[in-house]
Protein backbone atom coordinates (compact mmCIF):
# COMPACT_ATOMS: atom_id res chain seq x y z
CA UNK A 1 0.00 0.00 0.00
CA UNK A 2 1.34 3.34 -0.97
CA UNK A 3 1.55 6.99 -0.14
CA UNK A 4 1.14 9.42 -3.08
CA UNK A 5 1.52 13.16 -3.49
CA UNK A 6 -0.63 14.64 -6.25
CA UNK A 7 0.51 18.08 -7.43
CA UNK A 8 -2.07 20.25 -9.22
CA UNK A 9 -5.69 20.82 -8.20
CA UNK A 10 -7.20 21.76 -11.56
CA UNK A 11 -9.63 19.80 -13.73
CA UNK A 12 -7.31 16.80 -14.02
CA UNK A 13 -6.14 16.90 -10.38
CA UNK A 14 -9.75 16.65 -9.25
CA UNK A 15 -10.27 13.44 -11.25
CA UNK A 16 -6.95 11.92 -10.14
CA UNK A 17 -7.82 12.60 -6.49
CA UNK A 18 -11.25 10.98 -6.93
CA UNK A 19 -9.94 7.92 -8.75
CA UNK A 20 -7.03 7.35 -6.34
CA UNK A 21 -9.45 7.69 -3.42
CA UNK A 22 -11.64 4.97 -5.01
CA UNK A 23 -8.70 2.52 -5.12
CA UNK A 24 -7.82 2.41 -1.43
CA UNK A 25 -6.07 -0.97 -1.71
CA UNK A 26 -3.27 0.73 -3.69
CA UNK A 27 -3.43 4.42 -2.70
CA UNK A 28 -3.56 4.18 1.07
CA UNK A 29 -2.46 7.74 1.83
CA UNK A 30 -3.09 10.66 -0.52
CA UNK A 31 -1.91 14.26 -0.28
CA UNK A 32 -3.18 16.80 -2.80
CA UNK A 33 -1.01 19.91 -3.13
CA UNK A 34 -1.25 22.96 -5.36
CA UNK A 35 -0.37 26.62 -5.43
CA UNK A 36 -3.81 27.45 -4.05
CA UNK A 37 -4.61 25.28 -1.03
CA UNK A 38 -8.31 26.23 -1.02
CA UNK A 39 -8.70 24.40 -4.37
CA UNK A 40 -7.26 21.24 -2.78
CA UNK A 41 -9.56 21.58 0.22
CA UNK A 42 -12.59 21.97 -2.04
CA UNK A 43 -11.69 18.75 -3.88
CA UNK A 44 -10.91 16.92 -0.62
CA UNK A 45 -14.38 17.77 0.68
CA UNK A 46 -15.98 15.94 -2.30
CA UNK A 47 -14.14 12.66 -1.74
CA UNK A 48 -15.46 9.48 -0.11
CA UNK A 49 -12.48 9.30 2.29
CA UNK A 50 -10.07 11.64 4.01
CA UNK A 51 -6.99 12.91 2.19
CA UNK A 52 -4.41 15.52 3.22
CA UNK A 53 -3.94 18.82 1.42
CA UNK A 54 -1.04 21.26 1.20
CA UNK A 55 0.06 24.48 -0.45
CA UNK A 56 3.16 24.40 -2.63
CA UNK A 57 4.74 26.33 -5.45
CA UNK A 58 6.25 23.46 -7.43
CA UNK A 59 8.56 25.88 -9.28
CA UNK A 60 10.27 26.55 -5.97
CA UNK A 61 12.33 23.36 -5.63
CA UNK A 62 13.45 23.90 -1.98
CA UNK A 63 9.82 24.51 -0.94
CA UNK A 64 8.70 21.38 -2.79
CA UNK A 65 11.55 19.31 -1.28
CA UNK A 66 10.41 20.42 2.19
CA UNK A 67 6.87 19.25 1.47
CA UNK A 68 8.09 15.92 0.04
CA UNK A 69 10.22 15.31 3.15
CA UNK A 70 7.17 15.94 5.31
CA UNK A 71 4.71 13.81 3.28
CA UNK A 72 7.25 11.04 2.43
CA UNK A 73 5.40 9.85 -0.70
CA UNK A 74 6.41 6.79 -2.74
CA UNK A 75 5.38 8.58 -5.92
CA UNK A 76 4.53 12.08 -7.14
CA UNK A 77 1.69 12.36 -9.66
CA UNK A 78 2.34 15.64 -11.48
CA UNK A 79 -0.89 17.10 -12.85
CA UNK A 80 0.16 20.74 -12.49
CA UNK A 81 1.18 22.48 -15.73
CA UNK A 82 3.92 21.37 -18.17
CA UNK A 83 6.14 24.27 -16.95
CA UNK A 84 6.59 22.49 -13.60
CA UNK A 85 7.80 19.11 -14.93
CA UNK A 86 11.56 19.62 -14.61
CA UNK A 87 11.31 21.30 -11.20
CA UNK A 88 9.26 18.40 -9.87
CA UNK A 89 11.67 15.88 -11.43
CA UNK A 90 14.58 17.70 -9.73
CA UNK A 91 12.79 17.53 -6.38
CA UNK A 92 12.09 13.81 -6.91
CA UNK A 93 15.79 13.15 -7.55
CA UNK A 94 16.77 15.12 -4.46
CA UNK A 95 14.37 13.19 -2.21
CA UNK A 96 14.43 9.71 -3.83
CA UNK A 97 10.81 9.62 -4.99
CA UNK A 98 9.32 8.17 -8.21
CA UNK A 99 7.71 10.58 -10.69
CA UNK A 100 4.93 10.55 -13.28
CA UNK A 101 3.09 13.13 -15.43
CA UNK A 102 0.59 13.58 -18.27
CA UNK A 103 2.26 16.27 -20.39
CA UNK A 104 5.80 16.98 -21.64
CA UNK A 105 7.86 19.82 -20.15
CA UNK A 106 7.33 23.17 -21.81
CA UNK A 107 9.66 26.14 -21.43
CA UNK A 108 7.33 29.06 -20.54
CA UNK A 109 8.68 31.33 -23.26
CA UNK A 110 8.23 29.02 -26.28
CA UNK A 111 5.68 26.42 -27.39
CA UNK A 112 7.76 23.36 -28.32
CA UNK A 113 5.99 20.12 -27.34
CA UNK A 114 9.25 18.19 -27.19
CA UNK A 115 10.46 15.46 -24.87
CA UNK A 116 14.19 16.24 -25.14
CA UNK A 117 14.42 18.05 -21.80
CA UNK A 118 12.82 15.19 -19.89
CA UNK A 119 14.60 12.42 -21.83
CA UNK A 120 17.86 14.10 -20.77
CA UNK A 121 17.06 12.97 -17.19
CA UNK A 122 17.29 9.25 -18.19
CA UNK A 123 20.71 8.64 -16.67
CA UNK A 124 20.02 10.59 -13.48
CA UNK A 125 16.84 8.62 -12.74
CA UNK A 126 18.48 5.32 -13.67
CA UNK A 127 21.46 5.95 -11.40
CA UNK A 128 19.17 6.95 -8.54
CA UNK A 129 17.14 3.73 -9.00
CA UNK A 130 14.05 5.86 -9.60
CA UNK A 131 11.41 5.75 -12.31
CA UNK A 132 9.88 8.69 -14.19
CA UNK A 133 6.84 7.74 -16.28
CA UNK A 134 6.02 10.34 -18.93
CA UNK A 135 2.68 11.07 -20.55
CA UNK A 136 0.15 8.91 -18.72
CA UNK A 137 -2.98 10.85 -19.71
CA UNK A 138 -5.19 10.06 -22.70
CA UNK A 139 -3.23 11.61 -25.54
CA UNK A 140 -0.40 11.13 -24.79
CA UNK A 141 -1.12 8.12 -22.64
CA UNK A 142 -3.93 5.81 -23.66
CA UNK A 143 -3.32 6.46 -27.39
CA UNK A 144 0.35 5.51 -26.84
CA UNK A 145 -0.64 2.32 -24.99
CA UNK A 146 -3.19 1.54 -27.75
CA UNK A 147 -0.29 1.66 -30.23
CA UNK A 148 1.85 -0.67 -28.10
CA UNK A 149 -1.12 -3.03 -27.67
CA UNK A 150 -1.82 -3.10 -31.42
CA UNK A 151 1.82 -3.91 -32.13
CA UNK A 152 1.97 -6.60 -29.45
CA UNK A 153 -1.23 -8.41 -30.42
CA UNK A 154 -2.20 -7.57 -33.99
CA UNK A 155 0.73 -6.51 -36.17
CA UNK A 156 4.23 -7.63 -37.14
CA UNK A 157 4.78 -4.14 -38.50
CA UNK A 158 2.91 -0.84 -38.24
CA UNK A 159 2.89 1.23 -41.45
CA UNK A 160 0.71 4.22 -40.60
CA UNK A 161 -0.78 5.63 -37.42
CA UNK A 162 -3.56 8.22 -37.20
CA UNK A 163 -4.69 9.39 -33.77
CA UNK A 164 -8.21 10.85 -33.90
CA UNK A 165 -9.35 12.97 -30.96
CA UNK A 166 -13.02 13.91 -31.11
CA UNK A 167 -14.84 16.00 -28.55
CA UNK A 168 -18.48 15.99 -29.55
CA UNK A 169 -19.49 17.63 -26.26
CA UNK A 170 -21.38 20.93 -26.13
CA UNK A 171 -21.25 23.27 -23.12
CA UNK A 172 -23.60 25.85 -24.64
CA UNK A 173 -21.15 28.75 -24.06
CA UNK A 174 -19.92 30.92 -26.96
CA UNK A 175 -16.24 30.12 -26.33
CA UNK A 176 -14.41 28.07 -23.72
CA UNK A 177 -11.59 25.54 -23.74
CA UNK A 178 -12.04 22.14 -22.17
CA UNK A 179 -8.70 22.10 -20.44
CA UNK A 180 -6.19 24.75 -19.45
CA UNK A 181 -6.82 27.49 -22.08
CA UNK A 182 -3.18 28.53 -22.27
CA UNK A 183 -1.96 25.02 -23.09
CA UNK A 184 -4.93 24.34 -25.36
CA UNK A 185 -4.53 27.53 -27.41
CA UNK A 186 -0.75 27.15 -27.66
CA UNK A 187 -1.35 23.68 -29.09
CA UNK A 188 -3.90 24.78 -31.69
CA UNK A 189 -2.26 27.98 -32.91
CA UNK A 190 1.08 26.26 -33.50
CA UNK A 191 1.95 24.88 -36.96
CA UNK A 192 0.74 21.37 -37.72
CA UNK A 193 3.39 18.69 -38.09
CA UNK A 194 3.40 15.00 -38.95
CA UNK A 195 5.92 12.25 -39.53
CA UNK A 196 6.42 10.82 -43.01
CA UNK A 197 9.21 8.63 -44.36
CA UNK A 198 11.74 9.50 -41.70
CA UNK A 199 11.12 13.24 -41.46
CA UNK A 200 8.74 15.86 -40.09
CA UNK A 201 6.42 17.61 -42.50
CA UNK A 202 5.12 21.03 -41.38
CA UNK A 203 1.66 22.37 -42.22
CA UNK A 204 -0.01 25.69 -41.49
CA UNK A 205 -2.33 25.66 -38.45
CA UNK A 206 -5.63 23.96 -39.44
CA UNK A 207 -4.42 23.48 -43.04
CA UNK A 208 -5.24 19.77 -43.28
CA UNK A 209 -8.88 18.90 -42.73
CA UNK A 210 -10.87 15.66 -43.10
CA UNK A 211 -14.36 14.49 -42.17
CA UNK A 212 -14.59 11.29 -40.15
CA UNK A 213 -17.66 9.31 -39.21
CA UNK A 214 -17.19 8.63 -35.48
CA UNK A 215 -18.84 5.59 -33.87
CA UNK A 216 -21.50 5.29 -31.17
CA UNK A 217 -23.91 7.77 -32.68
CA UNK A 218 -21.44 10.69 -32.85
CA UNK A 219 -21.42 10.74 -36.66
CA UNK A 220 -19.54 12.97 -39.13
CA UNK A 221 -17.18 15.58 -37.65
CA UNK A 222 -14.57 17.94 -39.13
CA UNK A 223 -11.14 16.90 -37.97
CA UNK A 224 -7.89 18.91 -38.33
CA UNK A 225 -4.24 17.92 -38.35
CA UNK A 226 -2.23 19.18 -35.35
CA UNK A 227 1.15 18.36 -33.94
CA UNK A 228 0.91 16.42 -30.71
CA UNK A 229 3.75 15.33 -28.47
CA UNK A 230 3.14 11.57 -28.62
CA UNK A 231 4.08 11.61 -32.32
CA UNK A 232 7.66 12.30 -31.24
CA UNK A 233 7.91 9.45 -28.77
CA UNK A 234 5.87 6.93 -30.81
CA UNK A 235 7.95 7.39 -33.97
CA UNK A 236 11.09 7.03 -31.84
CA UNK A 237 9.92 3.88 -30.09
CA UNK A 238 8.29 2.33 -33.18
CA UNK A 239 10.79 3.41 -35.88
CA UNK A 240 9.03 1.22 -38.48
CA UNK A 241 6.12 3.72 -38.62
CA UNK A 242 6.14 5.33 -42.07
CA UNK A 243 3.56 8.01 -41.36
CA UNK A 244 2.13 9.25 -38.04
CA UNK A 245 -0.47 12.00 -37.75
CA UNK A 246 -2.68 13.49 -35.04
CA UNK A 247 -6.15 14.92 -35.67
CA UNK A 248 -8.57 16.85 -33.48
CA UNK A 249 -12.19 17.94 -34.04
CA UNK A 250 -13.14 21.62 -33.85
CA UNK A 251 -16.45 23.30 -34.54
CA UNK A 252 -16.68 26.29 -36.89
CA UNK A 253 -17.65 28.71 -34.11
CA UNK A 254 -14.68 27.68 -31.96
CA UNK A 255 -12.29 28.24 -34.86
CA UNK A 256 -13.85 31.62 -35.70
CA UNK A 257 -13.42 32.84 -32.10
CA UNK A 258 -9.86 31.65 -32.07
CA UNK A 259 -9.08 33.35 -35.38
CA UNK A 260 -10.34 36.69 -34.04
CA UNK A 261 -8.43 36.31 -30.76
CA UNK A 262 -5.29 35.52 -32.73
CA UNK A 263 -5.79 38.42 -35.13
CA UNK A 264 -6.08 40.90 -32.28
CA UNK A 265 -3.02 39.46 -30.52
CA UNK A 266 -4.78 37.88 -27.53
CA UNK A 267 -3.10 34.49 -27.95
CA UNK A 268 0.46 35.87 -27.82
CA UNK A 269 2.98 34.41 -25.36
CA UNK A 270 5.35 37.42 -25.37
CA UNK A 271 4.79 39.92 -22.50
CA UNK A 272 3.45 43.36 -23.45
CA UNK A 273 3.62 46.45 -21.29
CA UNK A 274 0.22 47.74 -20.18
CA UNK A 275 -0.11 50.67 -17.76
CA UNK A 276 3.32 50.01 -16.32
CA UNK A 277 2.78 46.25 -15.96
CA UNK A 278 4.10 43.34 -18.01
CA UNK A 279 1.15 41.27 -19.24
CA UNK A 280 1.28 38.03 -21.26
CA UNK A 281 -1.81 38.22 -23.52
CA UNK A 282 -2.63 34.50 -23.41
CA UNK A 283 -2.39 34.49 -19.61
CA UNK A 284 -4.75 37.45 -19.42
CA UNK A 285 -7.13 35.68 -21.82
CA UNK A 286 -7.08 32.64 -19.50
CA UNK A 287 -8.37 34.87 -16.70
CA UNK A 288 -11.30 36.01 -18.85
CA UNK A 289 -12.34 32.58 -20.13
CA UNK A 290 -14.48 30.16 -18.13
CA UNK A 291 -12.51 27.91 -15.78
CA UNK A 292 -12.51 24.47 -17.49
CA UNK A 293 -13.58 22.94 -14.15
CA UNK A 294 -16.81 25.00 -14.32
CA UNK A 295 -17.82 23.34 -17.62
CA UNK A 296 -18.55 20.01 -15.94
CA UNK A 297 -22.24 20.53 -15.17
CA UNK A 298 -22.83 22.22 -18.55
CA UNK A 299 -21.26 19.81 -20.99
CA UNK A 300 -23.38 17.20 -22.77
CA UNK A 301 -22.35 14.66 -25.39
CA UNK A 302 -19.40 12.32 -25.84
CA UNK A 303 -15.70 12.19 -26.55
CA UNK A 304 -14.22 9.55 -28.84
CA UNK A 305 -10.44 9.20 -28.94
CA UNK A 306 -8.59 6.42 -30.67
CA UNK A 307 -6.08 5.18 -33.21
CA UNK A 308 -6.42 3.97 -36.78
CA UNK A 309 -3.47 1.75 -37.54
CA UNK A 310 -2.58 0.26 -40.91
CA UNK A 311 -0.06 -2.51 -40.72
CA UNK A 312 0.74 -6.05 -41.68
CA UNK A 313 0.48 -9.41 -39.96
CA UNK A 314 1.76 -12.65 -41.54
CA UNK A 315 2.17 -10.79 -44.84
CA UNK A 316 -1.44 -9.53 -44.89
CA UNK A 317 -2.31 -5.84 -44.68
CA UNK A 318 -4.99 -4.86 -42.13
CA UNK A 319 -6.56 -1.66 -40.82
CA UNK A 320 -7.35 -1.58 -37.13
CA UNK A 321 -9.37 1.01 -35.18
CA UNK A 322 -9.21 1.09 -31.39
CA UNK A 323 -11.01 3.77 -29.38
CA UNK A 324 -12.77 4.82 -26.21
CA UNK A 325 -15.96 6.83 -26.03
CA UNK A 326 -16.76 8.69 -22.86
CA UNK A 327 -19.94 10.53 -21.91
CA UNK A 328 -19.50 14.00 -20.34
CA UNK A 329 -22.57 13.71 -18.11
CA UNK A 330 -21.63 10.24 -16.83
CA UNK A 331 -18.20 11.61 -15.84
CA UNK A 332 -19.82 14.54 -14.09
CA UNK A 333 -22.07 12.24 -12.10
CA UNK A 334 -19.13 10.14 -10.96
CA UNK A 335 -16.43 12.74 -10.20
CA UNK A 336 -18.02 16.18 -10.86
CA UNK A 337 -15.79 16.81 -13.92
CA UNK A 338 -16.31 16.71 -17.67
CA UNK A 339 -14.88 14.00 -19.91
CA UNK A 340 -11.72 15.85 -20.98
CA UNK A 341 -10.44 15.95 -17.41
CA UNK A 342 -11.83 12.45 -16.76
CA UNK A 343 -10.12 10.86 -19.76
CA UNK A 344 -6.80 12.37 -18.56
CA UNK A 345 -7.21 11.71 -14.84
CA UNK A 346 -8.19 8.05 -15.06
CA UNK A 347 -5.07 6.99 -17.03
CA UNK A 348 -2.94 9.08 -14.66
CA UNK A 349 -4.31 7.06 -11.74
CA UNK A 350 -3.78 3.80 -13.69
CA UNK A 351 -0.17 4.74 -14.62
CA UNK A 352 0.53 5.45 -10.95
CA UNK A 353 -1.12 2.16 -9.98
CA UNK A 354 1.02 0.26 -12.53
CA UNK A 355 4.17 1.72 -10.97
CA UNK A 356 3.13 1.17 -7.36
CA UNK A 357 2.05 -2.44 -8.04
CA UNK A 358 5.47 -3.07 -9.59
CA UNK A 359 3.95 -3.94 -12.99
CA UNK A 360 5.65 -0.96 -14.59
CA UNK A 361 8.55 -0.33 -12.25
CA UNK A 362 11.89 0.22 -13.99
CA UNK A 363 14.55 2.84 -13.12
CA UNK A 364 14.96 5.53 -15.78
CA UNK A 365 12.71 7.87 -17.77
CA UNK A 366 10.08 6.06 -19.84
CA UNK A 367 7.13 6.89 -22.05
CA UNK A 368 4.07 4.73 -21.45
CA UNK A 369 4.34 2.88 -24.79
CA UNK A 370 7.64 1.38 -23.61
CA UNK A 371 5.81 -0.60 -20.92
CA UNK A 372 3.74 -3.81 -21.22
CA UNK A 373 0.31 -2.55 -22.41
CA UNK A 374 -1.75 -5.48 -21.14
CA UNK A 375 -2.25 -4.66 -17.43
CA UNK A 376 -2.96 -1.01 -18.29
CA UNK A 377 -5.53 -2.04 -20.93
CA UNK A 378 -7.25 -4.30 -18.37
CA UNK A 379 -7.44 -1.43 -15.90
CA UNK A 380 -8.92 0.95 -18.49
CA UNK A 381 -11.87 -1.42 -18.74
CA UNK A 382 -12.08 -1.72 -14.97
CA UNK A 383 -11.79 1.95 -13.96
CA UNK A 384 -14.08 3.80 -16.34
CA UNK A 385 -12.52 3.99 -19.82
CA UNK A 386 -13.59 0.81 -21.64
CA UNK A 387 -12.21 0.47 -25.15
CA UNK A 388 -13.51 -1.08 -28.37
CA UNK A 389 -11.59 -2.49 -31.30
CA UNK A 390 -12.70 -3.12 -34.87
CA UNK A 391 -11.26 -3.70 -38.36
CA UNK A 392 -11.87 -1.18 -41.14
CA UNK A 393 -12.27 -1.87 -44.89
CA UNK A 394 -10.73 1.41 -46.00
CA UNK A 395 -7.60 3.25 -44.81
CA UNK A 396 -7.92 6.75 -43.34
CA UNK A 397 -6.49 8.95 -46.13
P1 LIG B 1 -5.61 23.38 -14.77
O1 LIG B 1 -5.10 24.68 -15.23
O2 LIG B 1 -7.08 23.17 -14.58
O3 LIG B 1 -4.89 23.00 -13.40
C1 LIG B 1 -3.52 23.13 -13.19
C2 LIG B 1 -3.26 23.09 -11.70
O4 LIG B 1 -1.85 23.17 -11.48
C3 LIG B 1 -3.88 24.24 -10.94
O5 LIG B 1 -4.45 23.74 -9.76
C4 LIG B 1 -2.70 25.14 -10.66
O6 LIG B 1 -2.60 25.94 -9.51
C5 LIG B 1 -1.60 24.11 -10.48
N1 LIG B 1 -0.31 24.76 -10.65
C6 LIG B 1 0.11 25.60 -11.64
N2 LIG B 1 1.34 26.04 -11.39
C7 LIG B 1 1.71 25.48 -10.22
C8 LIG B 1 2.89 25.57 -9.44
N3 LIG B 1 3.92 26.32 -9.80
N4 LIG B 1 2.93 24.87 -8.29
C9 LIG B 1 1.88 24.11 -7.90
N5 LIG B 1 0.74 23.99 -8.59
C10 LIG B 1 0.66 24.67 -9.74
O7 LIG B 1 -5.05 22.28 -15.79
P2 LIG B 1 -5.64 20.81 -16.08
O8 LIG B 1 -6.03 20.16 -14.81
O9 LIG B 1 -6.62 20.90 -17.19
O10 LIG B 1 -4.35 20.07 -16.68
C11 LIG B 1 -3.35 19.54 -15.84
C12 LIG B 1 -2.24 18.92 -16.68
O11 LIG B 1 -2.78 17.87 -17.47
C13 LIG B 1 -1.58 19.90 -17.67
O12 LIG B 1 -0.19 19.64 -17.67
C14 LIG B 1 -2.17 19.51 -19.01
O13 LIG B 1 -1.29 19.81 -20.07
C15 LIG B 1 -2.31 18.01 -18.81
N6 LIG B 1 -3.30 17.41 -19.72
C16 LIG B 1 -2.95 16.23 -20.35
C17 LIG B 1 -3.84 15.61 -21.21
C18 LIG B 1 -3.49 14.28 -21.80
O14 LIG B 1 -4.38 13.63 -22.36
N7 LIG B 1 -2.28 13.78 -21.72
C19 LIG B 1 -5.14 16.21 -21.54
C20 LIG B 1 -5.47 17.38 -20.74
C21 LIG B 1 -4.56 17.96 -19.89
P3 LIG B 1 -3.67 26.65 -8.62
O15 LIG B 1 -3.82 25.71 -7.49
O16 LIG B 1 -3.13 27.97 -8.21
O17 LIG B 1 -4.85 26.82 -9.49
Automatic annotation (TrEMBL):
Domain Saccharopine dehydrogenase-like C-terminal: 137-385
Pfam family of the protein (one): Sacchrp_dh_C
Location of the Saccharopine dehydrogenase NADP binding domain: 4-133
Gene3D superfamilies attached to this UniProt entry: Dihydrodipicolinate Reductase, domain 2, NAD(P)-binding Rossmann-like Domain
Signal peptide residues on this chain, from the entry's feature table: none
SUPFAM superfamilies: NAD(P)-binding Rossmann-fold domains
Protein name: Saccharopine dehydrogenase family protein
Amino acid sequence: MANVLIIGAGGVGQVVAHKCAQVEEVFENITLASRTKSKCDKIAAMLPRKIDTAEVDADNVPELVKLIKKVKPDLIINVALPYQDLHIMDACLETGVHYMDTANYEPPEEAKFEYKWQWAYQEKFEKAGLMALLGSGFDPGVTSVFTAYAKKHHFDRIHTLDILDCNAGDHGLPFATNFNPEINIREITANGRYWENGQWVTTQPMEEKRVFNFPEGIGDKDIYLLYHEELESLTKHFPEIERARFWMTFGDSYLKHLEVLQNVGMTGIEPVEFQGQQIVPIQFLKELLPDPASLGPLTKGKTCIGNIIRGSKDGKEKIYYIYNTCDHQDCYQEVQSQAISYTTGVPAMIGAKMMLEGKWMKPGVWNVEQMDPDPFMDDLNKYGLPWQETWLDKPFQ
